[in-house]
Design brief:
single chain, 432 residues, mainly beta, four-stranded antiparallel beta sheet, 30 strands, 39% strand, globular
């Protein structure tokens, strides 16, 4: 059912624009990391420490939220590698491929129990899959396969068999206690890389057996005194493995976010790029560039202030530079959720005014402008943009009114789910 006929967010027509990118990284063969002035080091480094603030560790629900606040909503790993619209063109050259099957997979939780639901994109109705993933899971799709990343495990699910309950589980693998895998990216159908937020490691895994094939140590990028480099996101773009690091020290962002670039096959470190914002939350690929969301530091009231230490920036991998498109000052507050419509060059973010108050804003990356919506009260439930259906799926965790919505550029449609469904946490769409 349509909960509103009012057009809340205007879908911007992409117009000609080019980003003037000013960098802080440079190509170098130095074996020692020289902080922001260096852009190359010997292979070593990745870690994992929550890029959420200490504020979200202050209560049980905020502790669980903190992991979601630093990941993304992330459940768009399979489609992000194929994103290809350009901010320098008047329209996107991306061709949307048609699939026979498109299935929404939704994880919801109240931090004491969780539920996995699923359903066809065209039906806007989800059913209980009857699969127990615990209370904390990030979902990512690669074709018909869905990867559920939980604090110590990876679960591989065949989305075409979700009606069969636990029989849809292909494989489960332990990656160690408190590893906190945040995101998985794929070089091909057989190989994936997982960034861990609880350890100083990136894991190379077989995409079907989940066997660990290799690993990258990123501890050299950790802030002084920290145990990890706070890895939050990982993408494969133009043969490179881009790893987004927060470099937090006891949850405090003392240095800007950092991108470490590796060869996607060998795992050999190639470069680093210093970003403008602090405390990264997520990133997406866009025509050979990266769109990065940084959330900045939380204030004394556990909010994300509207200043210029956070925002959306575009990273040009060829120029090894980065530049803000909009900052928290432009948006009125910081953000910790990101989805990207590469066809129209629109980034969707939540405006985190305070706990429980986080509406959505659509940011035109070409015009560097935004339109805000109050249709969703608390978009802390994560969101994902599905290029196939052209819909944004967003989870509203509003107290007493939690729901999952589909936004088609005009209307927000409430997805019908089981009566006992829990507040949204992570969403992905499997297309095959």
């Amino acid at each position: 059912m349509n909960v509103t006929k009012k057009k809340i967010l205007t879908m911007f027509a992409a117009t000609a624009a080019s980003f003037a990118l000013i960098g802080c990284g440079s190509s170098s063969s130095s074996a020692d990391y020289e902080d922001e002035s260096s852009s190359s080091v010997e292979e070593s480094s990745d870690s994992a420490e929550s890029s959420s603030s200490a504020a979200e560790k202050s209560s049980a629900s905020k502790s669980s939220d903190s992991k979601e606040k630093s990941s993304s909503s992330a459940a768009e790993s399979s489609s992000s590698a194929a994103e290809s619209s350009s901010s320098e063109e008047s329209s996107s050259s991306e061709e949307v491929v048609a699939y026979d099957n498109s299935v929404i997979v939704h994880f919801s939780t109240d931090y004491t129990s969780g539920m996995l639901t699923y359903g066809n994109v065209s039906e806007d109705t989800l059913d209980d899959a009857g699969i127990d993933l615990g209370t904390d899971a990030f979902l990512f799709a690669n074709g018909k396969y869905v990867y559920a990343l939980t604090p110590s495990n990876v679960t591989l699910i065949d989305a075409s068999k979700l009606s069969e309950g636990s029989s849809a589980i292909v494989k489960q693998a332990s990656i160690g206690d408190y590893a906190y895998p945040y995101e998985i990216a794929f070089t091909d159908a057989e190989t994936g890389w997982i960034v861990l937020n609880g350890r100083s490691t990136i894991l190379k895994v077989n995409a079907t057996s989940l066997a660990i094939l290799d690993s990258i140590d990123v501890s050299a990028f950790a802030a002084e005194g920290a145990t990890t480099a706070s890895g939050v996101s990982i993408k494969v773009v133009d043969g490179k493995l881009a790893v987004l690091l927060g470099r937090l020290n006891n949850y405090a962002p003392e240095k800007p976010a950092l991108l470490a670039l590796y060869d996607a096959e060998s795992g050999e470190l190639q470069d680093t790029i210093c970003l403008k914002g602090y405390n990264p939350a997520n990133m997406k690929t866009n025509d050979g560039k990266l769109v990065v969301l940084t959330q900045g530091a939380y204030d004394a009231d556990f909010n994300l202030p509207g200043d210029d230490t956070r925002g959306i920036e575009i990273v040009d991998l060829e120029k090894k530079s980065s530049e803000f498109v909009v900052t928290g000052k432009d948006l009125g507050a910081g953000s910790n959720k990101l989805a990207l419509d590469t066809v129209n060059n629109i980034a969707y973010v939540n405006i985190y005014n305070s706990y429980g108050d986080a509406p959505i804003a659509a940011v035109d990356l070409t015009k560097k402008s935004s339109v805000k919506s109050t249709e969703i009260v608390d978009a802390e439930g994560g969101f994902v943009f599905d290029a196939v259906s052209g819909k944004l799926y967003a989870g509203d965790r509003a107290y007493g009114a939690a729901a999952l919505y589909a936004y088609d550029g005009t209307d927000f449609t409430k997805i019908v789910e089981p009566e006992d469904v829990l507040p949204s946490y992570s969403i992905t769409v499997a297309n095959w």
